[in-house]
Here is the input.
Amino acid sequence: MGIYIPKEFSKAGYTVGTEVSISLEENNIVIRPKHLYQSRIKEI
Here is the structure.
């Protein structure tokens, strides 16, 4: 089960329903779309 952007985020310009990964980097919570990771891996 993944983490998805809720409809409340659409006002901020996020695409609703996008699966994201949440990580902690230097005490900041970082939210990134998962599909960006996959496309970058394919390019390498």
Strands lie at 3-4, 19-25, 28-33. The chain has one domain: 3-43.
